[in-house]
Amino acid sequence: xxxxxxxxxxxxxxxxxxxxxxxxxxxxxxxxxxxxxxxxxxxxxxxxxxxxxxxxxxxxxxxxxxxxxxxxxxxxxxxxxxxxxxxxxxxxxxxxxxxxxxxxxxxxxxxxxxxxxxxxx
Length: 121
What we know:
By secondary structure, this protein is α+β, with helices and mostly antiparallel strands. Helix content is 31%, strand content 21%. It has 5 helices and 6 strands, in the order H-E-E-H-H-E-E-E-H-E-H. It has a 6-stranded antiparallel beta sheet with strand order 1-2-3-4-5-6.
């Protein structure tokens, strides 16, 4: 299911091994594979940013999303960086996404380590 949304290994393997079928909800929501699909195909901003190379994998409690950045080169560990993307904007280009986001991890691993601290957005 996730590969059809543009998610590649090693992220696919990480979701298969570590992300449960239910959403993980603490200060940061990490979506289940089904929730990722729904965000990418039915909800904003996912439906707008996925075709531009950004795949939402979670969200804040206010609706902004954490998105994998497949538009930029991957980290040395092979995973994409993670960006915080506002749900209050419209995005027509990858440049617009990059201009109006904040990095939350130079790689998926860095993002998950940061999320585990419980700081959140």
